[in-house]
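Translate structure to sequence.
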């Protein structure tokens, strides 16, 4: 794929959880399209590697270490970000963790709290504190002031046994997305969610592509030649939402799953 247009040239994007997987793929796609970046993660080694990669595209990149589920860390990130950049055009809330794989009856309260805090509260905090700043972006009349992209999941559209904590968090992201789109739309800021299906990322540890496809054979894709997606599949949708092509789209949750039968 050749990126000639650089359609995000002049834009500034912040991506949480950018050290690997979907967050990394979005960072690389945005950099290829010309966006300057601020990248967040809690794994400094991974984040440093991604920053080195995006800088090969000639864009600026600010490193933002910190746990986005902690309000004081988010406030510090806001301070550091706006000490480096004048404004924020695109916020991608991607940071998250997987499920405990336990039934509701075996799920410990502390595990429930942890998954909801990292997967849902983090999105709320980032939207709240960075969104406040985005409302003040100076743009020509009638132009989009900013875009917020929240990474949910197909689990946010359909529950599954042993995924209770994760499912509730991802459903919550879709609800938050719809609510915030209504609240912040008057400032010409769009808010949308992406719901990935089964994607081969480091969240599955060392599981290879074929094994992951076999484990999930009960949830086949409509595209039989591609039973599992890749982070780049999600990055393409994130780019579309971030581009001017999607300026009249808000409050939506896009299923990017290869037509997997999750229902």
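Result:
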């Amino acid at each position: 794929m050749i990126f000639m247009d650089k359609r995000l040239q002049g834009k500034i994007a912040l991506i949480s959880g950018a050290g690997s997987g979907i967050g990394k793929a979005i960072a690389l796609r945005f950099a290829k399209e010309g966006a300057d970046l601020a990248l967040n993660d809690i794994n400094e080694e991974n984040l440093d590697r991604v920053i080195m990669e995006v800088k090969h595209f000639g864009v600026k990149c600010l490193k933002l270490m910190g746990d986005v589920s902690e309000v004081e860390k988010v406030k510090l990130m806001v301070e550091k970000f706006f000490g480096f950049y004048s404004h924020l055009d695109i916020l991608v809330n991607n940071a998250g963790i997987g499920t405990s794989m336990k039934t509701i009856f075996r799920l410990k309260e502390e595990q429930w709290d942890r998954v909801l805090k990292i997967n849902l509260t983090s999105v709320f905090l980032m939207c709240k504190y960075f969104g406040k700043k985005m409302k003040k972006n100076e743009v020509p009349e009638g132009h989009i002031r900013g875009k917020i992209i929240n990474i949910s999941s197909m689990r946010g559209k359909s529950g599954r046994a042993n995924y209770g904590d994760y499912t509730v968090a991802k459903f919550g992201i879709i609800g938050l997305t719809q609510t915030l789109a209504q609240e912040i739309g008057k400032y010409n800021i769009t808010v949308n969610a992406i719901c990935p299906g089964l994607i081969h990322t480091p969240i599955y540890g060392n599981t290879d592509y074929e094994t992951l496809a076999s484990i999930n054979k009960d949830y086949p894709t409509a595209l039989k030649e591609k039973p599992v997606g890749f982070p780049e599949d999600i990055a393409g949708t994130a780019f579309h939402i971030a581009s001017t092509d999607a300026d009249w789209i808000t409050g939506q949750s896009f299923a990017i799953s290869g037509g997997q039968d999750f229902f």
